[in-house]
Design goal:
single chain, alpha+beta, Alpha-Beta Plaits, 3 domains, four-stranded antiparallel beta sheet, 13 helices, 9 strands, 11% strand, binds zinc ion, zinc, RBD_domain_sf, RNA-binding, pre-mRNA binding, zinc ion binding
Length: 403
Amino acid sequence: MALSKSSNTYGRTAWEDAEFPILCPTCLGDNPYVRMMKEKYGSECKVCVRPFTTFRWCPGARMRFKKTEICQTCAKLKNVCQTCLLDLEYGLPTQVRDQALNIKDNIAKSDVNKEYYIQNAEKQLSATDSGLPGTSGTAGGKMQSDMLVKLARTTPYYKRNLPHICSFWVKGECKRGEECPYRHEKPTDPDDPLADQNIKDRYYGTNDPVAEKLLRRAATLPRLDPPEDKSITTLYVGNIGEKMLEKDLRDHFYQYGEIRSITIVSRQQCAFVTYSNRAAAELAGEGTFNKLVIQNRRLVIRWGKSQAKQGAGTTAEGAHYEAVPGLPKALPHPSELESSYYNSGAANADYSSQQFGPYGAIPNADASGASYNYGFSNFAPVGIHYPSQDPTRLGATSKTKPT
Ligand SMILES: [Zn+2]
Ligand SMILES: [Zn+2]
Ligand SMILES: [Zn+2]
């Protein structure tokens, strides 16, 4: 079966091997040496009710044992995991996948037809070992859907394999304490896709509450609106990790138009992609927002900030600071103090560095400000804002006291 060339590698499990179950990476777990317990015809398939070879395994430390629920034929027909019944490529419920790709399967649901259909399907599967008779190969083919890409899992979700919550503990009645194999936690995980679901509904993609929730979420996915300032042609790219190279980004972003520059800020694990023109930047924003996955990382896409706005905060020149009522006035610039205060001859050099040293960066006060009457010549406390500014306060040397 041809998997699409997207960088999403969630479902790339080798499932041709009949000695091994068809599993999604989440159900398989993170242990590469997982021990499979195989039981020939160990159970009935929950969809077609025929006996099939079951597998049981532990998907990782402190995880619960999992087992296959449906037969391999049924799994192949829908391209789903034998255990969680989620799509193998996207990790999504079949209802979401089929709606997004507009797949209409012709899998028979009545018992008689189903038997016949499954037998035919099995013949086809063994003859070609490719394509899904039920879905005409569309699920794994080249078809792409914006919505699927946005909703798809990019990495396994191992939390789903945790033990179930201890129902006794929830009622305050579990006496097993540490030994209890179940989870002692409040049941706050409504995202558990297996919570109370009819496995057939899930398989056929009907009345699947998780699917409905995902589809609702898809309808309200946030959008990235281009900023009004048309001079902005830069996109911020976040969550790039440590190993992302400029080339990796360029390979994805070049398709939207000419790139002027790509700057990687490794310390913040982000990058800035600047286009030569606005149209290209808008295309790129639309094409990547919420769906660009590189190296299994879903990148965060935002618009860059306006140059004018960025500048305003850092330079005092041209910026206007409104006086906030009720607060002390801004401290005067040291140069002003030198002319009014030090020229009075009443001060010593120590005083200046103690008082105004830390305020070296204060913006230049409005030159016309008649309010900055500090009156330091006679030490009248007219312009004193803070006790520490008062030369007459405790600790000041006696020679600076007014006479
Ligand atoms: Zn089956
Ligand atoms: Zn699974
Ligand atoms: Zn318990």
